[in-house]
Amino acid sequence: MSGLAIVVDDLAGPEVAALLAEHLDDMRASSPPESTHALGLEALRRSDVTFWTVWDDHVLLGFGALRELDPSHGETSRCGRRPRTRASAWGRRWSGTSSRRRPGAATGG
Length: 109
Prior knowledge:
The chain is an alpha+beta fold. The chain has helices spanning 14-30, 41-44, 90-98; strands spanning 4-8, 49-56, 59-70, 73-76, 80-81. Strand 2 and strand 3 (59-70) form a beta hairpin. The protein is globular and about 35 Å long.
């Protein structure tokens, strides 16, 4: 049985920084500069961004982020993921997680 978990992450782990760097390098290599809108490590640590990582037991599979635009609107980022996981089920779980409100976000009336 898989220990798949999606957790809010503080971006402190070296494996997270390494996968983010790999993701940014891949985006820059495969997209024109005007189409590369990925956030770097420091930008992802901003208070208006919630960052999630996806783990299978102790193996980092991928990540995603949600930036709060205002209390009732947000913008999800493209998921970064290990190439071997691109056809796996965790992307479906991420979609459900990222569509929920940011922790601590105000609820609309």
